[in-house]
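Input sequence (98 aa), recorded before submission:
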Amino acid sequence: MTSTPQAVRVQRAKRHRSSRLRRKQTRLAWMLLIPALAVVALVAIYPLGLTVWQSFTNEQFLAGLQPVEFVGLDNYRSVFAERGAMWQAIKNTLLFTA
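Predicted structure, token format:
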């Protein structure tokens, strides 16, 4: 079955309209998603990054306005040096989250 030139043009026009509609829908989807992704970044990712940064400093909870120093891996060395307490904490965490 052969298509007439008119039918081919109609098919191309329909494809062009659908691709334009698809681009508009994709743009709308991203515009609606960006605020939600920003909230996720503020609520989840920022505190996680801050916690990781604080784990490399000597900052103490409720210590006031004491200056904070970068101590590197010293905090992790001291935690893993106390093997009994560390493994007990891991065991308790697994017990209560399982």
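Checked by second reader. The mean pLDDT is 86.
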